[in-house]
Specification:
mainly beta; seven-stranded mixed beta sheet; globular
Length: 119
């Protein structure tokens, strides 16, 4: 079974870049047909899929965030990362990394990390 753990800062100021890392255990991020995703849930709102990277390193992003979002990976450490530029208080949310065979419907999620953006 794949286990995922998010890490990164919990508090940022407006206009900074949010960088989060997901450490994967129990499976390889180069596993064929798997997508490694980032999702977030703002306070009082639903879960939003942000983007993903697949086993070959190809990236996919939700159009509304594509201009500010970058997902990368480090295969030697079995980690993948999210970078979200020019954050605003609207980016305050619990951020999750996730994995699965369906790109926008991952089957496994990490416990999540709370990120707050101050104005």
């Amino acid at each position: 079974q794949v286990w995922l753990q998010e890490s990164g800062p919990g508090l940022l100021e407006q206009s900074q870049t949010l960088s989060l890392t997901c450490t994967v255990s129990g499976g390889s991020i180069t596993t064929n047909s798997y997508y490694w995703s980032w999702l977030r849930q703002p306070p009082g709102k639903g879960l939003e899929w942000m983007g993903a990277i697949d086993h070959s390193g190809t990236t996919y992003y939700v159009p509304s965030l594509e201009s500010r979002t970058s997902i990368s990976r480090d295969t030697t450490r079995n980690q993948f990362s999210l970078h979200l530029a020019a954050v605003t208080p609207k980016d305050t949310a619990v951020y999750y990394c996730a994995a699965g065979r369906e790109i926008q419907n991952p089957s496994t999620r990490g416990q999540g990390i709370q990120v707050a953006v101050s104005s």
